[in-house]
Amino acid sequence: MTQRILFLTPGLTRGGAETQLLKVASHLKRQNKEVLIVALRPFNNFEEQLKEQQLNVVILKSWKTHFVSNIRKLIQTVRQFKPETVVAFMFIAIIFARLLKLKFKFHLISSIRNSAISTKWRKAFQITSGLDDLVIYNSKTSQSNFEQQKLVKKRGLVINNAIRIPPLSSIVYPESEKFVWVTMAHFRPSKDYMTLFKAIALLKDFDFRIDVLGHVRDQKWPFETVEQLGIQDKVRILGFRSDAIDFLKEADAFVLSSFWEGSPNAMLEAMAHCKPIIGSRVDGIEELLTEVDCGFLFKQGNAEELAEKMLQIMKMTVEERRTLGRAGRVYVELYFSEEQILDKWLKAVG
To answer: What is the 3-state secondary structure (H, E, C) of 148-211?
Structure first.
């Protein structure tokens, strides 16, 4: 009999956790598992990918106007699908899955994708933590934080993010006179673009540019800030791009200035493409850059230190930057390649 696996997620917006969920779900389906994805909120930025992978999805409506009907739909979906295993990604989905388990008695795998939990979910998360059958983290730091703070009752395991490793023949080492940086992150408060823009302003006398890839939505402040700081000739805000990897290939280095991260996919992809890295000294980034000598950390929110580190990389020789980049690629190959990570998920699901 085919094993039925239900994935529960807050939504299907384009983010690192959602991207990983779809990789895992697609892999399990290819292994002849019956897979269903349930999104708690009415967002779906993966329609083409879901259709291509032939993944079934149920998307709930706005909870403000459809609270009762959403509860009914969720219960009805679980009752009809009869999952043997539920994999819940991120905190609110984990809490919902735990409550559903009280009624439906499935095997519950809770996947924690961040190193900290916000105050609004903390109490409910802690109270229901005994309902997990297995907890999977995507970083050692997350596991350590949650277990030391006794936010979980069962010891878990770490399964890193799955990253597609490009062939060495596709790696590009740009040789243009203008140095090109790239960053890939949606314009959310947690990504702290303000610090990055201030650092760029401190370096405006140097010959470089930065390509900024990520959803801006309807926000005007990024463009206004760039203009106010007088860095229009340095910054290209390109929005979300489906061809983001092409921009990454053509860049000389990668930078990420986040307030916090779980395990940043964009940084891992940059490492896989042999790019030297600069990242803020926060849990998910620090764990990566202290494990391997592929770039530099700076104190989160410190634009002056970030500018210093960016300048340090720009002043390196091409071979010095390539040495950093190659170290990052070797590390990602060893611990984050899709083949080994998805195999770990398959074993965890059983």
So the answer is: HCCCCCCCCEECCCCECCCCHHHCCCCCCCCEEEEEECCCCHHHCHHHHHHHHHHCCCCCEEEE
Q: What is the pLDDT of residues 4-46, one digit of tens each?
A: 999 999 999 888 899 999 999 999 999 999 999 999 999 898 9
Amino acid at 250: E
Cα angle, residue 272 at apex, residues 21 and 298 outer, rounded to 5°? 95
Q: What is the pLDDT of residues 239-261, one digit of tens each?
A: 999 899 999 999 999 999 999 88
Q: Which residues contact 99 (CB under 8 A, 6 or more apart)?
A: 128
Question: Are the C-beta atoms of 194 and 215 separated by less than 8 Å?
Answer: no
The side-by-side arrangement of strands in the sheet containing 277-280 is 235-239, 208-213, 179-184, 253-256, 277-280, 295-298
Q: What dihedral angle (degrees, nearest 10) is formed by the CA atoms of 323, 325, 330, 335?
A: 140
Supply the pTM of this predicted model: 0.92
Helix residue ranges per DSSP H, 175-315: 193-202, 221-228, 244-250, 265-272, 283-291, 303-314
Question: Distance (Å, rounded) from C-alpha 194 to C-alpha 163?
Answer: 28
DSSP state of 231: -
Q: Phi and psi for 193 in degrees, rounded to 5?
A: -65, -25
Residue type for position 147: E
